[in-house]
Amino acid sequence: MSSLKMKNDVKYELIAPDGGWGHILNIGGILMVGFTVVPISSFALIFGPYLSTFYDEISATTTVYSVFSTSFYATGLLANFLFLKLSFRKVAVMGALIYCFGSFASIFVFNLQFLVFSYGILQGIGTGLIVPAVIVATNEYFDHRKMVVFAVCQAVVALLSMIYPGFTRLMLDNFGFRGTQAIFAALSLHTILGALTLQPVKWHMKKVLLNKGEHTTGSTSYSSTLNEMESHQLLDSNASEKSFDNKEKHFQSLESLTNCHKATPQENRKGCFLQNLFDLSILKEATYWNIAVGLSLCITSEMNLMALMPIFLSNVGFTDNEITLLMTIYFMSDLITKIIISVITLFWKFKSRYVFLGNIAITVALRIVFTEINLYWWTIVLTAFLGSSRCIIQLSHPMVLAELYPKQFSSAYSLCMVFTGISSIIMGSIMGLVKYKTQSDAMVLHVLTFVCLFCAITWTLELLYKRFVFKNVKK
Questions:
Q1: In angstroms, rounded to a whole number, what is the distance separating the alpha carbons of residues 282 and 288?
Q2: 4, 37, 53, 420: which is deepest, by most CB within 10 A?
């Protein structure tokens, strides 16, 4: 991020700090993600045995987790709108308060419906506000070091994920599930502290002197016009922090703004609102639909697998200590893979979509073997590979969209979150139906594997079509 400022006919460029307070912001981001997203992996360990006394454990866990995922991803719509009106710090604080309220409420759970509300809805909405705020803040504070910062933050989060299963088991053995949830709720208060570190980036921008002739302008250049708009905001001492933080993200196209003024008053209000929220033009592309549906299905599948894995392992005969060890290996593999990828990306550039597709194809084979073969050492090895697969899915997911839609990333990512929310609802219903009809945990996992296979097939067909058919038609 950068903008221009003039003083006494001398031009300065205000650039992202790429450090400084940004490092404090990263610590705050790790606190927020570490105490909202990471504890999801322990949900089945905490509430699974309690839910099993009233309901089928797999079905109940799937229901709560599906509602959580839907609330989380659907809140992307709300977050995108709030960024138009509020700074990312205010959005993060709002999300932290909602999450903490839901976390404390979950201590007093007395039936499935209450847990769906406290954990699935409240904590899901809170997480859905926190995560976009952290991503937007980090994106604005860093420019050249952005990839390194994201990699380091995700590595720390992966380390926390590796520690959580053992920590959860220790708390359960000593305090029971309500006491454990009370401890997790107390830890969630750190999210409020983390949210307060998301200071407006304009407070920490670096001023760089420009030599004459370095800055060129053009009458039809959007980037030049955007810089001028940002410059006016910086010169206005009374401008609110939100106007600067969100200018670049939400004014994606001057052409869309021009079209708004050409519309009738009623159309103008509806059209401008939608255009400020999203650039809906990407929905006209069949490629985006294929990518968004594939990504949403794979993310939903991966998140549900993580939540159901402890229950599945318990039902096939593994002890609590063995399950804790396996989950630790799962997250340790995730962490190690993140570190390896972080090093590789420093020296080698690759297409994220191809990496994602290749990983999904391998993941399908690994999951089938994991579900059908339950020998101890086989399960340890397969769990490690599945942890690496999880890492690649998480890292490649936003990079695929950023690679294909760099100028429309905000809209592409937000709409993909909507797709993921919808897929969470559909997948939750399908898994519940399969469990009810077959009474088989393995069949539920096979459903999660099938949706990944569906993504691999549709993506491969699209790439082959573009490689052979579309290329020949174009000639």
A1: 7
A2: 420
Contact assessment for residue 35 and residue 42, using Cβ atoms and an 8 Å cutoff: no
Beta bridge partner(s), residue 14: 3, 207
- Taken in order 383, 388, 391, 397, the sign of the CA dihedral is negative
Cα separation of 141 and 202, whole Å?
9
Fold: same for 1-211 and 280-475: yes
Q: What is the model's pLDDT at position 98?
A: 95
CA distance 199 to 28: 11
Give, in order, the Cα–Cα distances in Å from 161 to each of 158, 349, 411, 439. 5, 28, 29, 30
Give the separation between CA 430 and CA 14, rounded to whole angstroms: 51
User: Which class in CATH covers the domain with range 1-211?
Assistant: mainly alpha
Domain boundaries along the sequence of the chain: 1-211, 280-475
Rounded Cα distance, 120 and 101, in Å: 12
**Tens of pLDDT, residues 72-83:** 888 877 777 787
The answer to whether residue 29 scores a pLDDT higher than 50 is yes
Identify the residue whose tokens are 């939750």. 428
Contacts of 39 (CB under 8 A, 6+ apart): 164, 184, 188
Work out the number of other CB atoms within 10 angstroms of the CB of residue 430: 17
What is the spatial distance between Cα 345 and Cα 443, in angstroms, rounded to a whole number? 37
What are the tens digits of pLDDT across the range 118-130?
A: 999 999 999 989 9
d(CA 363, CA 367): 6
Neighbours of 451 (CB within 10 A): 22
Do 425 and 70 touch, CB atoms closer than 8 A? yes
Q: 206, 202, 204, 196: which is closest to 241 by C-alpha? A: 202
For the domain made up of 280-475, give the CATH fold: Growth Hormone; Chain: A; (1.20.1250)
Of 293, 252, 241, nearest to 274 (Cα)? 252
